[in-house]
């Protein structure tokens, strides 16, 4: 079966931007790199999460997908469903390219009041709002090749019908005009679309998802502008009884450690205009591998975030086969105040914590300069969680290593006041000159006490420090599994507790 699949893949030819190209040879299968509780497609290419919506007990995850090769190509919306955010079942492809173009990123809403009229006989439609990207129009150079369109489902997301009136939001002549995130806004009593429009966000509103009126623009001169703005999201969160609005904006390139990353702004949205609270540059995740992430729709006050665990710098080259890319673990978002700043804190969703087997906890560990833990903690599975607590944060590094001399180092650098992930010696990296390296993000908490949660799943580590104030996600490809655990500290540190739990996931 596997061989047949690989042969089919290697014989296929594929189309990129309208041109037929010979298929790239498929590298040997790498089942050892398949994560368990992170979603991956069974085969072929995946990028951004799309259309995430919760409906009748099911989390729907659609995703940018090219089902004919392991590299980016004409985009479809793949589909997966889950009851618990960690065990995913891939479903048939939801949206295929059509005469209006490829199906780029977007969102999906539950149209409870049937404002769109797509529901028949009392049915409640799910409506997808996505970007059509038209390569033939692109060749004409009018810059009008991206526009917003609709599709709807009347069978809980199983099958989708494209709206015959597409596109619903034509392009006024803006080269990058894409990735609509739509939600119902109670202040406006309308749908509000948050759209990435080249170097800024443009907000639109609609009573019925079909007719859109421009409201305002935000960000031309604010935030990071090292690359194009993409995949925005806008949602409210409360802190101490007060509501704030969070605007996520992915940017590529121009991330804090190179390539793709997601910045955010905290402020107010009055149904028309977004006003940021401060101008401090903020990133939802400082690692290199969390991009184009947005939140699930229809989850009430709870905001659950999921990102694409890769970076456009090397996403097309990572050494996995016959699929490319995984999503991050789901994260619950909350606001936290530090001094006069309000930050977004990300923590692994409780559904991930439920995977944890009973923890093995070591108390009062003194590390200087090194403490080998391999005789106490056996890294027998590649899915596990480590939690560290200290009352007095000093230099500290968690080192995973193997008999081949490879090591992955995750730590805190006291002098720089930064958390970091160093994958320079963590395995395969020759596929891209920008992959290997030590990447860092600032410690935002000011307390001497610190807590760190690290999630591992074969080829990824997700670091949540200080209740999620600093988050970093990175991927790595060791030639053999990491089996040894060591702590290092140049300054010396005492950990009140270090706990290790296996995470039981479903391996495909
Ligand atoms: C972000 C992105 C989106 C676009 C999609 C195309 O990674 O560039 O802006 O809709 O990918 O696959």
What can you tell me about this protein's structure?
- The protein has helices spanning 2-11, 135-140, 350-353; strands at residues 14-16, 19-21, 44-55, 58-66, 76-82, 89-95, 102-110, 126-133, 146-153, 161-162, 177-185, 190-197, 200-206, 213-218, 228-239, 242-252, 261-269, 274-276, 291-295, 304-308, 323-324, 331-338, 341-348, 360-367, 370-372, 383-390, 396-401, 407-413, 418-422, 438-442, 450-457, 460-465, 470-475, 484-488, 493-502.
- Helix content is 4%, strand content 47%.
- It has two domains: 4-19 and 44-348, Glycosyl hydrolase domain, family 43 (Tachylectin-2, Chain A); 356-502, Exo-inulinase, domain 1 (Jelly Rolls), CATH 2.60.120.560.
- The strands form eight sheets. It has a six-stranded antiparallel beta sheet with strand order 24-35-26-31-32-33, with no helix packed on it. Strands 25-34-27-28-29-30 form a six-stranded antiparallel beta sheet, with no helix packed on it.
- The model is unreliable at 1-20 (pLDDT under 50).
- The chain is mostly beta strands.
- The two termini are 15 Å apart.
- Bound molecules: beta-D-fructofuranose (FRU).
- The site of beta-D-fructofuranose (FRU) has 12 residues, from β3, β7, β11 and β15.
- InterPro entries: ConA-like_dom_sf, Glyco_hydro_32, Glyco_hydro_32_AS, Glyco_hydro_32_C, Glyco_hydro_32_N, Glyco_hydro_beta-prop_sf.
- It holds the Pfam family Glyco_hydro_32N.
- GO terms for molecular function: sucrose alpha-glucosidase activity.
- Residues 351-492 form the Glycosyl hydrolase family 32 C-terminal domain.
């Amino acid at each position: 079966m596997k061989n047949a699949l690989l042969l089919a893949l290697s014989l296929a030819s594929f189309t990129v931007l309208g041109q037929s190209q010979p298929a790239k040879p498929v590298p040997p299968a790498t089942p050892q790199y398949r994560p368990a509780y992170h979603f991956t497609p069974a085969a072929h290419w995946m990028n951004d999460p799309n259309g995430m919506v919760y409906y009748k007990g099911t989390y729907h995850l659609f995703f940018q997908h090219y089902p004919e090769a392991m590299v980016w190509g004409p985009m479809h919306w793949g589909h997966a469903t889950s009851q618990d955010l960690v065990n995913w079942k891939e479903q048939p492809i939801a949206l295929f390219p059509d005469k209006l173009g490829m199906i780029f990123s977007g969102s999906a809403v539950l149209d409870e009041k049937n404002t769109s009229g797509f529901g028949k006989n009392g049915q409640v439609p799910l409506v997808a709002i996505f970007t059509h990207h038209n390569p033939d129009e692109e060749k004409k150079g009018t810059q009008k090749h991206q526009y917003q369109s609709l599709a709807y489902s009347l069978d809980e997301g199983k099958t989708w019908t494209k709206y015959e009136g597409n596109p619903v939001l034509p392009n006024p002549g803006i080269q990058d005009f894409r990735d609509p995130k739509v939600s119902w806004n109670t202040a406006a009593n309308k749908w509000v679309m948050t759209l990435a429009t080249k170097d800024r966000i443009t907000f639109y509103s609609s009573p019925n998802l079909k007719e859109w009126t421009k409201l305002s623009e935000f960000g031309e001169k604010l935030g990071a502008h090292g690359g194009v703005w993409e995949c925005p999201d806008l949602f409210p969160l409360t802190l101490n009884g007060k509501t704030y609005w969070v605007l996520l904006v992915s940017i590529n390139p121009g991330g804090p450690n190179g390539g793709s990353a997601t910045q955010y702004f905290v402020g107010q949205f009055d149904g028309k205009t977004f006003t940021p609270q401060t101008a401090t540059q903020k990133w939802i995740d400082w690692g290199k591998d969390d991009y184009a992430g947005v939140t699930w729709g229809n989850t009430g006050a709870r905001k659950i975030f999921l990102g694409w665990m890769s970076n456009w710098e090397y996403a097309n080259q990572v050494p996995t086969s016959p699929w490319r890319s995984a999503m991050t673990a789901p994260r619950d978002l909350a606001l936290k105040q530090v001094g006069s700043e309000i930050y977004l804190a990300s923590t692994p969703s409780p559904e991930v914590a439920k995977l944890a087997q009973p923890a093995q906890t070591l108390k009062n560990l003194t590390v200087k300069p090194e403490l080998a833990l391999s005789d106490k903690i056996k890294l027998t599975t590649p899915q596990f969680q480590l939690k560290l607590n200290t009352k007095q944060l000093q230099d500290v590094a968690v080192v995973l290593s193997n008999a081949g001399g490879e090591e992955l180092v995750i730590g805190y650098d006291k002098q720089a006041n930064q958390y970091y992930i160093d994958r320079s010696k963590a395995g395969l990296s020759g596929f891209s000159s920008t992959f290997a390296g030590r990447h860092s993000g600032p410690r935002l908490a000011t307390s001497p006490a610190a807590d760190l949660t690290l999630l591992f799943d074969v080829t990824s580590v997700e670091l949540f420090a200080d209740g999620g104030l600093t988050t970093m996600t990175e991927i790595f490809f060791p030639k053999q599994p990491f089996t040894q655990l060591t702590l290092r500290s140049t300054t010396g540190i005492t950990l009140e507790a270090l706990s290790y739990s296996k995470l039981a996931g479903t391996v495909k």
